[in-house]
Design brief:
7-stranded antiparallel sheet, alpha+beta
């Protein structure tokens, strides 16, 4: 029997029992056996109180004894570089990272749990607004830049093939008071392509804001309401004045805001 069916049974059985005993108590009272009616009525009252106690317990379990989780932008900004004239892929890392040549890193975020109750068997469901990838790649900034759309939701940038998805579930074993997390590469590549297409060429200029939605949910403790958040990313052109047209260098800032639950 599932937990939901057990909860329904625990609620309805005492309630039905209380109603039946209430009917028997009334019959006994007016039938002349008032002592019997009182005892049965008292038993029915106990069952009604049991139902009330169960409802209070369920409310506390589902609304009080739950994690209180926020997604917080890292103090490290993301860096995105690209030199298509050399047939290169995107270079991705976080500000201050010291990565070996050829390595990359996606943007980092923090999960902050303000409750004393940890979340287990959790996940972050990442998503971006649907868009036409082929149409994006036809933008003037990306034409003739060694980018090609491949079958199976893939895109080739230089000599590197990226999976591109608009939704991805990132499993997390548990969320404690302070847990590191990240934006998955197959989600972040959507933002990278957007910035490469939309960031003005002038140094210091800013891109339009790109939105990524995140829904945090967990299975233990059960009954918790998912936390809906929106990550806003904005790129700043960090290219040197007079740099080559093909050179792309951006520093990306993040903000996190709550979405309606």
């Amino acid at each position: 029997m599932t937990r939901k069916k057990m909860d329904i049974a625990i609620f309805w059985l005492p309630l039905i029992g209380g109603l039946l005993l209430g009917g028997v108590a009334i019959s006994g009272w007016y039938g002349g056996d008032k002592s019997f009616g009182l005892w049965i009525g008292f038993t029915g009252l106990i069952l009604f109180l049991l139902v009330a106690a169960i409802q209070i317990q369920q409310f506390i379990w589902q609304n009080v004894n739950q994690p209180d989780i926020d997604l917080v932008a890292s103090t490290q900004r993301a860096v995105l570089k690209w030199n298509p004239s050399k047939g290169e892929a995107f270079t991705m890392f976080n500000e201050g990272d010291q990565l070996p040549r050829g390595h990359w890193a996606v943007p980092k975020l923090k999960l902050k749990n303000k409750s004393t109750y940890n979340a287990l068997d959790a996940k972050i469901s990442w998503s971006v607004a649907p868009y036409d990838l082929r149409k994006l790649l036809e933008s003037p900034s990306l034409q003739k830049k060694n980018i090609a759309v491949l079958p199976g939701s893939q895109v080739q940038v230089g000599n590197t093939i990226y999976d591109v998805t608009q939704r991805h579930d990132l499993p997390i074993i548990f969320i404690t008071r302070d847990t590191d997390t990240f934006i998955p590469l197959n989600i972040w590549i959507n933002a990278a392509l957007f910035f490469a297409a939309s960031l003005p060429p002038e140094p210091g200029s800013h891109s339009p804001t790109y939105f990524l939605d995140a829904v945090i949910s967990w299975n233990i403790p059960d009954g918790g309401q998912p936390k809906r958040l929106r990550v806003k990313a904005t790129a700043t052109n960090m290219g040197p004045a007079g740099g080559l047209d093909d050179e792309f260098s951006a520093l990306i800032d993040f903000e996190v805001e709550q979405r309606p639950q």
